[in-house]
Amino acid sequence: MNRKRLCRTLKGLSLLAMTILFTGSAVAKPDVGMWTFDNPPTKLLQEKYGFTPTKAWLDHVRLSSVRFMDGGSGSFVSPNGLVMTNHHVAIGQLQKNSTAEINYVKTGFYAAAPGEEMKSPDLQVNVLVSMQNVTSRVLSAVKKGMNDQAALKARQARIAKIERESLKKTGLRSTVVNLYHGGEYWLYRYKNYTDVRLVFAPERQAAYFGGDSDNFTYPRYDLDVAFFRVYENGKPIHSPDYFKWNAKGPGDNELVFVSGNPGSTDRLYTVAQLLYQRDYRYPRVLNYIKSWIKNLREYAKRGPEQKRRALVLTFGLSNGEKAMTGEYEALKNPKIMEIRKTQQETFRKKVDSNPTWKAEYGNAWNIIADVTKKQEIASNKQWFEKIIGSRLAGLATAIVQYVVEVKKPDAKRLDGYHVSQLRSLKFRLLSPAPIYADFEENNLAWGLQMSLDALGPDDPFIKIVLNGKTPGEVAKELVGGTKLADVKFREKLLKGGEKAVKNSKDPMIVLARKIDPILRANHKWYKENIESVLAPATEKIAKARFAIYGKSIYPDATFTLRLSYGTVKGYPMNGTKAPYKTTLYGVYNRSLGFDQKGEFALPERFWKRENQLDLSTPVNFVSTCDIIGGNSGSPVINRKAEVVGLIFDGNIESLAGRFVYDETTNRAVAVETSYITEALRKLYDAGKLADEIEGK
Fold it and tell me: pTM (2 decimals)?
């Protein structure tokens, strides 16, 4: 990352743009917002663009959009269950299907016939079928006189009941979503698909052209696309709602929309919460990520197979490091923090000006400030008193807790083990994805060392886990002795229940049993001291916001389906202007400018077939659509709900978008539909796939 450039960008963020964003001012607003489908920005779109999305349009867009449960978004692009997303969303499944002999991440994949489509080991995709406001049902569970802990338990028991009843009634994945930090609760029902097969993915060198150097930058030249097909009962599903293909792509200043699942934002956080993020969470997480990346790169030096095994995890962590560094720089920017403080003071003055509001909501900010101080004190234990870095250890912990939790009444179970969550949990626990012993041992040793360094040798958790041995020795013994890499062994433990797990001598299961009391104690402490106090306080602030601004402000992102809008538009950059689009001419120029080496080397097919391509074909473009991590793979559509692009990144200037949005330079980066079809037909001999998406 160009850190100096990032700092200059953050310092130059528009004061007006940020003030509008956080005060809900009545003046004309920029193209900003991750809007829920129950509350679309209809008035804003009509006033600014003369476009009013109808209920039919919104329903069609919602049902054409999908969520990838291993992180990311996608959309149906044919009536035959064909789903488009990013290569970097698909990369985990590509690696899980790869071997030392065949590396699909490197070579790419294309199934020319249905029988050749490749099953994903553990991929789930969701389609949001319906939404129901259940706020009153959830909040009515809290009775007058309840203390914070009792209120939290009552609220969570009611949520579990709503989800359980919905699952039983509809068979759909049912999740109660918390919006506006407790201001509203919605029951989202999803059709969950678990038979998802890969149809096409290019070589990573084409998809991630420019590599880490170009990540979070623009201009870009990536073919970051992949196609899956969704099956049910052994056959491709019929998907009547899908986005028709617009092979021309978008024009300059054209109104476009993004329908996807942004992960999380902190735009409605209090100043105290932001300061906790700045002073404690970000430094710790960044140190954790950097340490793990260093460890993985050392592991990758052992040989080509180790390099292959480490690639996807290294890629994900490196991407996270770059994103979080940008967010951290934003939090350290005095101008941004000053604006957030001013916004909060303005909001609180409005609350205090009304005696009823002041009495009901006025103390919420002070309560949250006190809670964050408790978080600071306990954050080290909460973060490191658990085994990190190991998939095997994660499986062991989940199995040990699963067999205990499923015997309890649903309302009293730990998060993640409720009736409505078990189907997806078991699907993950029984994933046949390969587990590599040497990779596990390496990551486990690293994670144990991190916990030892953070907690010290006298911590009870460390004493139990290490028992006087080194992290390397313990990792070797655990990985060498466990059978958890075998799916059938895991399945046997789950079927055997609590008795089988209690009697198991598998070293990883034995350790999971020993540390389970500590994990449960830490979970209980967090619930009682943080979440139970935070929930009613943030709920008060949400109610105050509704009282003053109504629902003119969208909720923070929660990895649920949202609609954002904007225009295709370049922006000022480094004393010049970034164009709204790039072309194939630029792909070759950038590769040649780096002597076709390293991250800028193109796959051989690009050079062999250069004369067959139309080099004026648009490749990537930018828009003012408001996105964040989780939006990867989201479709970019026009007024007609035709797909014109595929979101795959944001520019460096967008990294502050977790907290603020500035329309002047914040940009979402997408792959042009025209590049996708040009590549399918002329580079990959995938004309049949191109015909399907173009409806031919």
Answer: 0.94
